[in-house]
Amino acid sequence: MFADFNGLPLHPLVIHVVVVFAPLATMLAVAHLVPAWRPVLRWLVAGTASIAAVSAFVAKESGETLKDVIEDQLQSGPAGRLVEEHEELGEKLFIALLVFAALALVVLAVRALHEGVLGHIAAIVLVLAGIVVGVLTFQTGEKGSDAVWNPTGEVDYSGASD
Fold first, then answer.
1. Are 25 and 104 contacting, i.e. CB atoms less than 8 angstroms apart?
2. Is 162 a domain residue?
3. Do 141 and 19 meet the contact criterion of CB atoms below 8 Å apart?
4. 131 lies in some domain
5. How high is the pLDDT of residue 161?
6. Which structural domain range is residue 50 located in?
C-alpha cells in the first residue's frame, strides 16, 4: 500500500506534503494569535496540522517500505547510517505532528469557549509546538536529502569552484 504511486516510490512524493503543510500550519498558528484573523484561521490551523500529521504517517510508512526495498544497497553504501538517522528523526516528527494537530484541535475548542488567558496560553503553546515541528521538519529533511544526494559529505553543491 505504501510502496509506490504510478511506478515511483511513494516516499519522495509524499514528503513534499509534509514539508509544505507542517511549516504552513505553524505560520497559521502564529497568525491565529492576531484576534481579527482568528475566525478565518481557526479551522485552517487545525486542518493544515491534521493534513501534515496524516501525510507524515504516510511518509513514515512509505519510508519504511522503501528502506526494505533498498536494504542491500544501504548496508553496502555510505547512506545507511544517514537513513537510520533520517528514520529516527522522521519518527519524532510524526509524533510531534500528532501532538501539534491534537493541540490545534484543543486550541480550537478552548478558544471557542474562552477568549481570555486560557485561550491565549493554549495558542502560545500551539505556536511553541509548531516551532518544534519546524525544527524537526528541517532536520529530518536535511538528513534524508544528505542520504540521497551527498551520503559521503564530499559533494559541494554551492557552485563555488576549488
1. yes
2. no
3. yes
4. yes
5. 62
6. 4-149
Predicted pLDDT at 162: 56
Task: Check whether 18 has a pLDDT greater than 80.
Answer: yes
Distance between CA 96 and CA 44 in Å, rounded? 18
Tell me: the pLDDT tens digits for 101-128? 999 999 988 888 877 888 889 899 999 9
pTM above 0.85, yes or no: yes
Q: Are 147 and 86 in contact (CB under 8 A)?
A: yes
Summary count for the chain: helices (H), strands (E)? 5, 2
- Cα gap 154→156, rounded to integer Å: 6
| Contact in structure between 45 and 108 (CB atoms under 8 Å) | yes
- 80-108 b/e (C-beta count within 10 Å ≥ 16 → b): bebbebbbebbbebbebbbbbbebbeebb
> pLDDT, tens digit, for every residue of 24-38?
999 999 999 998 998
Q: What is the DSSP letter of 115?
A: -
Q: Which three cell numbers stand for residue 15?
A: 514528503
The answer to whether residue 81 is domain-embedded is yes
Number of domains forming the structure of the chain: 1
Q: How many CB atoms lie within 10 A of CB 57?
A: 16
